[in-house]
């Protein structure tokens, strides 16, 4: 990472597990922040143990959200471990956590205490429900919040059972909101000189993503339901079965409707009163889906891609992960990154999704081993080698023990 990165020199302490908090801190690290991740002695972030593994104790899930960080293992139930964390936070610009509301307060790190310790500190709390309200102190996770927020009620096939989104949409959405909140607070601190609390949650992230469904409900009184691969507001915006596989067609305006009719070799549909405009197409939605499906079924996906692209109608096959990671467009955008793990080889993961022309993101550090940087960080906090050895002996801190015997890097395209 270079000194010209967007937030180079920003000091971030993360007390996070799984995805939401770690994703927020990783994004800051991608743009140059110096991120120190506090983990539990002996166990670390829960996601380290989730298989499959890249390298022994490093689960794929952990690896995907923890590059560009240093790992410090602390026992935050011991006074000595808490003191190490206190020294870290006193020198930090940002603290990120995604534990249940009140968890850090039990270690003495409530907002009032944090603000007194470091008035410039920006504390980003990413929880399940947010810091206020009747359920604030309850635990929540991605699956729970997809259901609680209403997101699961609009996912899946019409008339079918509940379906979870395949991606961790609530976790990653909350992590993104956390990053945005931190950057807003940093900008405010340039003017005021003071930090503040950033309070967001999985619930609020999901509600934001459901914005148009919520607005539609208040506008119409109709409760939205699942619409399969498409949208109830557009029968020409969905997946159709071609002769050999599925294809997504997304003709979402009048110009594209005309292009779709041309590609399907059904020009007479343009003049059909039943499909004259978007409202009529929705009114005759099931009929139109059946008619389009009958035509699409007559040719393979590749043939439809040519015809639809010729008529400027967005379409594509439904790629699997093994296909998308080798797509020329994905490679051109450098959205597959390779990171060296010293002594073990290389690992591949999703790349950097935000491109800045003058202060670009980068990958400077691979995901760390548990406690890999405990000694290094503590020496920077004015602990001596003897102090560190004594605290490690009593279990207040955990030191780097290296890769376990037999650890092997995983392969991949």
UniProtKB/TrEMBL annotation:
Keywords: Transferase. PANTHER family: SUCCINATE--HYDROXYMETHYLGLUTARATE COA-TRANSFERASE. The keyword Cell inner membrane does not apply. It comes from the Bacteria. One of its GO terms (molecular function) is CoA-transferase activity. InterPro entries: CoA-transferase_III_domain, CoA-Trfase_fam_III, CoA-Trfase_III_dom3_sf, CoA-Trfase_III_dom_1_sf. The keyword Transferase applies. This is CoA transferase.
